[in-house]
Design a protein that fits this description.
heterodimer, A: about 300 residues, alpha/beta, Rossmann fold, Dihydrodipicolinate Reductase, domain 2, 2 domains, six-stranded parallel beta sheet, six-stranded mixed beta sheet, 10 helices, globular, B: about 350 residues, TIM Barrel, Helicase, Ruva Protein, domain 3, eight-stranded parallel β-barrel, 13 helices
């Protein structure tokens, strides 16, 4: 038997789940979206899925577990809910691609370690702020070692759903750990700000990097420019507002040059309007990771006769 | 009007003009003086709240937990409070602060985003802390919208909800209308936190009291962000003259301001050109020093930076946008100069 698609499901019908649904429908690749499961029967996401003819469920994870053909599950619920989901999915032998900051599995940031952990039962996509900023911290740390990285993600209030709001601490913990483990900073800190401006602001990220010692400014700029181009392959609205600037700042390690990068992320507008780049970078990353897992699973199915 | 409870926040809001360089010795001296003068609550933490020590806001000279511990051990009657902003500080720091002596936590959100504070109120109550909700930048929304947000904080466990004029942008009637609406809608206490950017710190506090406020804030010598806050010693004198002195030693506070705080201040917060701009444009008071610095670095007028931040509707904690605006303004000026050359 040879399948050409792997069935996948989206768990969570909020902003992120719905945005991902549109992406998977637009470009399914090796994945077939077989279900969108939520817990709120009146949610807009489920209504849209029904309209598009995608099987839906309102009893959360149960319907997904009941269908053994679903091999990959994108969890777009909340950090708290994912702790339970992670266990159930593992017990049922499904691959979990976790879009919450629960951090049960190893971290994946596509332009840094996309192909890693293909045998892991659960991979975590950190946070929207992490997906936006870790590539740039990594772009610096691959050129010169990084003593400290700090990021500030500012997102439009309208783009932050209840899952993000109820688990805001997990955003800061998980983003900071991702900046260290994947970004390569010895120490890191993350701050998130919700901005209610009318009309809504584009997702903005400020990335401060303190290198360990002397560094080649041109090498840093080149590496950053290269990384921006890589992320733009899957998030076209990912761009620096200015070239990286270097300021002398007082730090716990003395007066040090600090590399400051001002990043703007404009979304594709798949579900929420283009200001919600934070959704886009998360769901676009999830799609990339899901596609690779699906191909990997397919390759394992293709056993020679 | 009722006799209010006064919280002195010299050691928190004053952390901004002090560039977060408070030492244990300074904290001990200020706490002793406030405690002796009958101030019932003293707030101590980084200016941007627990875990505010950062490149974004400025690193602390001394760990805020050490400062909290020093404050607690030097207070005989006063209780120690700390500020936290969800998104910056987390439950981890809140637990640590409680372990080191904090008895009251003031949990602050942008005035439209109260629902990011549920976890923190929950933990504070588990820890047995008194809780205060802070609706920051409250000039940006109507009394009705603020009531909705205040009700959320009340539901999460706030013992008091403050209208916080973080930008010092309110006129007395703005302060009164907001406090009155919250008083009518909530069963918990209501507070008011003023900034003096339009020279109205004490006037707005009085308007809030007339509207029914139960709690108010002050700083010795007005040492706080922007043009500073309502001065604690001034509030004490005014409340005393109104016959509403909640047990404050007016002369003691005047002396503490004059002889303990004034000598260590890097400058006297005052409604100068840039500080007035903050109130006038309605931007976060802590932007003052960051805008001055970016103005000097990128050769842009800080007032232009502040006005542009107001236009972009920057909110509490968005210090990083200052560099962005400064770069944009500097580039805009360069390109207009270049055009000028072409036409010459």
């Amino acid at each position: 038997m040879q399948a050409d698609k792997i069935k996948v499901a989206i768990l969570g019908s909020g902003n992120i789940g719905t945005d991902l649904m549109y992406k998977l429908l637009r470009q399914s690749g090796a994945m077939e979206l077989a279900m969108v499961a939520g817990i709120d029967p009146t949610s807009e996401g489920l209504a849209r899925a029904r309209q598009l003819g995608i099987p839906t469920a309102t009893n959360g994870i149960e319907a997904i577990l009941a269908d053994p053909d679903i091999r990959i599950v994108f969890d777009a619920t909340s950090a708290k809910a994912h702790v339970r989901h992670a266990r159930l999915l593992r017990e049922h032998g499904r691959v979990a691609i976790d879009l919450t900051p629960a951090a049960r599995g190893p971290y994946v940031v596509p332009p840094v370690n996309l192909g890693a952990h293909l045998e892991a039962p659960n991979v975590n996509l950190i946070t929207c702020g992490g997906q936006a900023t870790i590539p740039l911290v990594y772009a610096v740390s691959r050129v010169t070692s990084v003593r400290y990285a700090e990021i500030v993600s500012t997102v439009a209030s309208q783009s932050a759903g209840p899952g993000t709001r109820q688990n805001i601490d997990e955003f800061t913990f998980t983003t900071a750990r991702g900046l260290e483990e994947i970004g390569g900073a010895r120490e890191a800190k993350a701050i998130i700000i919700l901005n209610p401006a009318r009309p809504p602001i584009l997702m903005r990220n400020t990335i401060y990097v303190v290198p360990e010692g002397d560094f080649d400014e041109n090498a840093v700029r080149d590496s950053v420019a290269q990384m921006i181009a890589e992320v733009q392959q899957y998030v076209s609205g990912y761009r620096l507002k200015n070239l990286p600037v270097i300021e002398q700042r007082t730090t716990p390690w003395g007066k040090r040059p600090v590399i400051i990068m001002l990043l703007e992320v404009e979304g594709a507008g798949d579900f929420l309007p283009t200001y919600a780049g934070n959704l886009d970078i998360m769901t676009a990353a999830a799609q990339r990771v899901g596609e690779l897992f699906a191909r990997h699973l397919l390759s394992k199915l293709e056993v020679p006769v | 009007m009722k006799t209010p409870r006064l919280t002195d926040t010299t050691l928190r809001d004053g952390s901004h003009p002090m560039r977060h360089q408070f030492t244990r010795q300074q904290v001990a001296a200020i706490v002793q003086a406030l405690d002796r003068a009958g101030v019932p609550v003293i707030e101590v933490s980084h200016g941007d709240g627990l875990a505010g020590s950062s490149l974004q806001y400025g690193f602390s000279h001394t760990s805020e937990f050490d400062l909290i511990e020093t404050a607690r051990s030097n207070a005989e009657r006063a209780r120690i409070a700390a500020l936290m902003l969800p998104g910056i500080g987390t439950r981890r720091e809140l637990k640590e602060a409680a372990a080191r002596g904090v008895q009251i936590v003031r949990i602050a959100t942008q005035c439209t985003e109260a629902d990011i504070s549920e976890q923190h109120f929950g933990l504070a109550k588990e820890l047995g802390l008194e809780t205060v909700g802070f609706l920051m930048m409250a000039h940006m929304r109507s009394p009705e919208e603020l009531v909705e947000q205040a009700r959320l904080m009340e539901a999460y466990g706030a013992d008091c909800v403050y209208i916080v004029d973080s930008a010092g942008a309110m006129l007395p009637q703005d302060a009164a209308a907001r406090v009155r609406s919250l008083k009518a809608a909530l069963s918990v206490q209501v507070g008011f936190h003023a900034h003096n950017n339009l020279g109205l710190g004490v006037a707005n506090t009085l308007a809030a009291l007339e509207a029914g406020a139960d709690q108010i804030d002050g700083c010795l010598r007005g040492l706080g962000a922007g043009a500073g806050n309502a001065a604690t010693e001034l509030l004490a004198a005014v409340l005393d003259r109104l016959g509403m002195n909640p047990g404050l030693d007016v002369f003691g506070l005047m002396d503490a301001a004059e002889y303990i705080v004034a000598p260590i201040m890097p400058f006297q917060p005052f409604p100068d050109r840039d500080a007035i701009t903050i109130g006038y444009a309605g931007v976060y008071s802590t932007f003052l020093l960051h805008a001055k610095q970016a103005g000097a670095q990128y050769n842009v007028d800080p007032r232009e930076i502040l006005v542009e931040l107001g236009r972009r509707q920057a909110v509490a904690g968005q210090e990083d946008w200052i560099i962005d605006v400064a770069l944009d303004l500097s580039r805009r000026r360069q390109s207009s100069t270049q055009r000028g050359h072409l036409y010459e």
